[in-house]
Amino acid sequence: MAFTFFFRDSQTLDMLATFLVQYSSGRMHIKVWNPGCASGQEPYTFAMMLSEKMGHFAFRNLIFHNTDIDISNLFQEIIEKGIYKYEELQRIPIDLFEKYFKHVTGDLYQIDEKLRKKMIYYKHDLTTLKPIDSNYSLVLCKNVLLHLQYEQRVEVIQMFYNSLSDGGLLAMEQTQKMPEEVSHLFHPIASNAQIYLKL
Ligand SMILES: C[S@@+](CC[C@H](N)C(=O)[O-])C[C@H]1O[C@@H](n2cnc3c(N)ncnc32)[C@H](O)[C@@H]1O
Questions:
Q1: Which residue puts its alpha carbon closest to atom 27 of ligand 1?
Q2: DSSP conformational letter for 164
Q3: Nearest atom, ligand 1, residue 141 CA
Q4: How much is the pLDDT for 26?
């Protein structure tokens, strides 16, 4: 199973949620692409943050396209059901845990339907360089590009650029610097995180 956990790099996600709320103002469609979503801990963390920060109207217009190469073939079912073991939920702030999770049975908890309804899952390999859709408000791709060769990384970031709306956002993990070949396509907007605006 892929390595991931709820509230991983929560500082960056929280900052990103604030940027996305600003970006979303007055827009009818807010589409987030989360490539390398693994079993859903990252998109659900981010959806909780957005639910807290966004107004009701903007949140209604939000949709997540979660994709992963998924060699286990398990991610779609896990994300759709949104059921996780209690031990996996320990990092979630208690107020959000109580608000967004309900007990199912034994040590299993299910995330609120309001967030589950936002999640669409597609099995997808980034190295095909074929985006599943376009006009994304945000591409949230963390701890995935390190699995690719440098040249592939450049091509994948170019694909992200093409799939973003004008002024859309790209976020990568802290250790992933923007390659020089594509740096003219984006403007960094955070001094302490890899968050970029499409130029
Ligand atoms: C370390 S996990 C990161 C999960 C989550 N983004 C996070 O930061 O916690 C990396 C994920 O990338 C996926 N992955 C690796 N290569 C991929 C590719 N070529 N296309 C799509 N997903 C890929 C893996 O299956 C895995 O689920």
A1: 38
A2: E
A3: 6
A4: 86
Q: Which residue lies with its CA nearest to atom 12 of ligand 1?
A: 36
- The Cα 177–Cα 45 span in angstroms is 23
Q: State residue 10's pLDDT score.
A: 97
pTM above 0.85, yes or no: yes
Structural domains in the chain, CATH included, are: 10-198 (3.40.50.150)
Return averaged pLDDT per consecutive 10 residues of the chain, 199 residues in all. 94 97 92 98 98 94 97 96 98 98 98 98 98 97 96 98 97 93 98 96
Minimum CA distance residue for ligand 1 atom 3: 143
DSSP conformation letters of 5-50: -TTTTHHHHHHHHHHHHHHHTT-S-EEEEEET-TTTHHHHHHHHHH
pLDDT recorded at residue 185? 98
Using only the alpha carbons of the chain, give its radius of gyration: 16
What is the structure's pLDDT at 176? 85
46, 78, 145, 147: residue to mutate for ligand 1 pocket, most atoms within 8 A of CB? 147
pLDDT of residue 75: 98
CA distances from 15 to 4, 65, 99, 128, 169 (A): 19, 20, 21, 30, 12
Please list every protein residue whose CB sits less than 6 Å from any atom of ligand 1: 2-4, 8, 35-36, 38, 42, 68-70, 125-127, 142-144, 147
